[in-house]
Amino acid sequence: MSSLVYFLKxxxxxxxxxxxxxxxxxxxIFLSLFIIGxxxxxxxxxxxxxxxxxxxxxxxxxxxxxxxxxxxEKVQEFIKGxxxxxxxxxxxxxxxxxxxxxxxxxxxxxxxLGGNPLPASINxxxxxxxxxxxxxxxxxxxxxxxxxxxxxxxxxxLKYGQRTVERLFQVTNYLRYGGIVLIGLLxxxxxxxxxxxxxxxxxxxxxxxxxxxxxxxxxxxxxxxFLMEGALHAIIGAALAIxxxxxxxxxxxxxxxxxxxxxxIGVESRMFIIIYLVLLAAGLVxxxxxxxxxxxxxxKV
Length: 301
Fold this sequence. Notes:
Elements: H1 2-17, H2 19-55, E1 58-63, H3 69-80, E2 85-91, H4 93-103, H5 107-112, E3 120-126, H6 132-140, H7 143-148, E4 158-160, H8 162-204, H9 206-214, H10 219-259, H11 269-298
Antiparallel strand pairs: 1-3, 1-4, 2-3
Helix pairs in contact: 1-10, 2-8, 2-10, 2-11, 8-10, 8-11, 10-11
């Protein structure tokens, strides 16, 4: 216990000796962890949006006017048996027109149609949105569906949102890769700052360290204050980052949610707790590794 008190006292003195470098180290860790935290929150928000879009992925198969009821029933039974399909429903021409009327902001458009040009359709809900392409391919290759499809090319009678989801996945992948590169760069910068800070602390105490060697102090006792100093830099930087992210959670995120109410951008409180623990652990690792590198290079004990 007395050793820990000594380590803490020496590390605090190290703060005072190299105040500008110490502040630079803490600010660098803070900014690095803050950006990492924002990236993690953003990744969770994007994941929620992607899952929401995925859940909306369905297939609409349009059928021609005058298709026989028996043929339609066979097609629906065939689709129900496909892997990845959770439910199948049928929308008649009249129901399609009523839906269009309810969705249209201009009732005159419906009246001007002069008839009902909308086709009936088979609506397919999926148990696994990732299988939408496979299910669509099986339907368009089916002779049963080709018989009732409203276009000579069955593929043109199918409508589904897989392309939207694929584009969304591409964008999120690019963001993830860019985020990983950015995080790596920030961690490297933080390590460099801690390394320099500990190096200056070692140089400032070189006479004291030489005396400690002469009186037989152990390597662990000599290294302790520098490890403690690096850890303190990390803890302070992590605490500042966590505090700023908590402000984002309490003030910025609710504003964003109210502005974009149509998007599921809410993040559960427990996920923020996990992010805070990750940031604290990452800060300690960065602080200890930066100190260890500095001691290995400049402190020959």
